Amino acid sequence: MELFDLVVIGGGIHGCGVAADAAGRGLKVALFEKADLGAGTSSASTKLIHGGLRYLESYEFSLVRQCLMEQRLLLQNAGYLVQPLPFVIPVDNNTRPLWMINLGLFFYDRLTARSMPHSTILSAQDLEKLELQKKPKAAFRYYDCQTDDNRLVIADALLATSLGAKIYTHHEVTSVVSTEESWIVKTQGKFGPYFVKAKAIANMTGPWLKNVTQDCQLITSQTEVKLVQGAHLIVPKLYSGPDALAYQHDDGRLVFFVPYLEKFTLVGTTEFVIDKMPQKPTIDPCELTYLKDLVSKVFGKNIKDNDIIGHYAGVRALIDSNKSASKATRDYKVEKMYCPHHKHPIVHLIGGKITTWRLSAEDIVSSLKKEFPLMTAPWTTKKILPGARVNTSSHMIFEELCRDFPFINKELLKRWSQTYGLRTYNLIGLRSSLKEFGAKIADNLYEAEIDFLMSTEWAQNLDDILFRRTKLGLTLSPPEVKLIYDWFGQPITHQIS
Ligand SMILES: Cc1cc2nc3c(=O)[nH]c(=O)nc-3n(C[C@H](O)[C@H](O)[C@H](O)COP(=O)(O)OP(=O)(O)OC[C@H]3O[C@@H](n4cnc5c(N)ncnc54)[C@H](O)[C@@H]3O)c2cc1C
Fold this sequence. Notes:
By secondary structure, the chain is of the alpha+beta class.
């Protein structure tokens, strides 16, 4: 049985972040994910790298500041995956008042040095351009960032393996026992049970946090957790401008309308508390109706069920502070505990955000300093993620690719630059014509890309490829998607379409 310093349970943004951070500090790391990397909440977010303007209302200045600092680091270190996104906040009689939003934005712009423009109030002409059903009294524009949550997870996992971590997908951790020497971790994979030993464990199972501790009879976190589900709709583009909209609904909640994949608008999120974590969260009919009604209220457009391109639901495990779902803090807590008999450590993460994954991963690994005194210092603030170059956007990479590969059409190079960044050079390799990419499986999808995803990114089936590693499952037409599944003889299991 192989002995690892650290076994990470869960391959979402936090698990992969911890694996990368720990491996980079000299620990021997294994990560086990029961499904695909990022298949949990980390592919079901609103896909924003944001400071969380509304957390200022609950005076969470340090959380907002941390988030904005992480946003700046991600723009610098993962530029092809994180793009600035303008947001508009309409102000009306039923919304938070003008002075309050103005004050919040004043702080938001100044809490940390940012490379993005400061917020502004929209002119009467700009208000007209908003294409809203009801013209608001006023509106502000401010800046946050958009990302591809699942690509960030993959970039993190690639970083972890480049530093020696071992990543096992489709391996569910089913039991953890402690012996004199170490923890013994049992996982269940395709080929049966697999055992490893670990000096320390990081429970990075997000909303499954309590399930895994119960199922494996592990020492559970003492923190009260609130499970809050949120759902999103993907609908054909609702309006033409480049802004996202932060819209305050009548119940006081902020719902975002975000331009998505050029052709779509992402609408979400809902927020409701659930008692038990399901195997796979799905949108509730009430959430669907809530979001459809909101689209009709805000844009005067009736969305029928067959207009919906996709929908998804995810669950957050928030620190339960007896506040409502929307007011509960989005901050995270690292809880380190010891097995009562042999004093081996286990670290749980409660809460957190995609935006702050680097920081929480750093805190989790640093919490093990006592057990691993030779561990090196935190290092990730300057680490450029795989596929990125410092301060380089996907557009800059796209221009380089167009120059170097004139035989590949621009649409494909654009998608690759946004998906793989500079790793597109690895995907293309020494090929000098499109014919060398193998069979054309669909518009702008060649066999070579599927091989690349399966051989370098842990993709195992078409759901992984079409809906998580790429978003082709959304952009290709449903008959094209069906043809691909038929071609590979795989059933369509993805819920999104
Ligand atoms: C609706 C919604 C919108 C959000 N929007 C944003 C946003 O715009 N920006 C932002 O910064 N944050 C956002 N968040 C928060 C963010 O998405 C989460 O904090 C983050 O994705 C949690 O990541 P995680 O790695 O902790 O959990 P997960 O991504 O859920 O990963 C946990 C993993 O553990 C695995 N697992 C569970 N049990 C086992 C086991 N026994 N063995 C092995 N593996 C196991 C699961 O399969 C899963 O992959 C949003 C959250 C929600 C719910």
